[in-house]
Amino acid sequence: MKTGQNIPESLTARLLNVVVLDLHSNQLKSLPNSIGCLKKLKVLNAAGNLLSFLPKTIENCRCLEELNANFNKLSMIPDTIGYELVNLKKLSVNSNKLLYLPHSISRLTSLKSLDARLNNLRSLPENLENLINLQVLNVSQNFQFLETLPYSIGLLISLVELDLSYNRITSLPDSMGCLRKLQKLSVEGNPLVSPPMEVVEQGLHAVKEYLSEKMTTGHHGPKKKSWVGKLVRYKTFNESTRNHRNTEEREGLISEYRSIEALASPRNLGMFSPRRFFLHKNNLH
């Protein structure tokens, strides 16, 4: 759909039944407030424009499943967007000027993919545990801005791919050792101290093992104890069996994990046995 720098408010009167709206690459400076009238809209592509904000009325598009606002000039996303767009499965806001993601993002329980790379993010929302269906998270290339990650990242029970590359992260939260479904982790371009690079170079298994060990043997202050409780409650961590050393089970785990794509070519794969830190489930990949 080709248009000028603005869309007339009255245009939506002719689009009430539209399901897919493609507005990409039109030099748009704003979206009309009346976009909230599009009650059947499932896909909105507004990428490659000059948008500095999204109208709050976009929250009324409650059937929206995919929102693409890549390559704009967004400095913020409506604060309450996560409370309303309950059916959103894919949110793409890469290549903008975002300083933060609203805390309500953590309420998007249907979300499967979140792409927020190439922004100016200073932090991520604290309460990520509600994102129970999130499979792909990309917050790479926020360069000098993103220095820390919330501990709740270890409660993303469906996470398969996590890209943290080219930020200023020095330490990965211990809780990430409990990301049982994680198959791909990218951390290059960070000044990592924990885990050290010699562990990172050994692959994803080694990283999980290191973080799990650190969580069980490290400092157990009030905050750490409360998070261990949460991890147990979300069935991502079983503290009571962390010292289990059954050889047959360990060998079985290595076999189950062979398909995982690691950070680099794993060396000495047989040395790592994360099963002692994770619950034994029949559906464990």
Automatic annotation (TrEMBL):
Pfam families (UniProt xref): LRR_1, LRR_8
Keyword vocabulary terms for this entry: Leucine-rich repeat, Repeat
InterPro entries according to UniProt: Leu-rich_rpt, Leu-rich_rpt_typical-subtyp, LRR_dom_sf, LRR_domain-containing
Gene3D superfamilies with a match to the protein in the record: Ribonuclease Inhibitor
Domain of life: Eukaryota
SUPFAM superfamilies: L domain-like
Family annotation (PANTHER family): PTHR48051, RAS SUPPRESSOR PROTEIN 1
Protein name (database record): Plant intracellular Ras-group-related LRR protein 6
Organism of provenance: Manihot esculenta (Cassava)
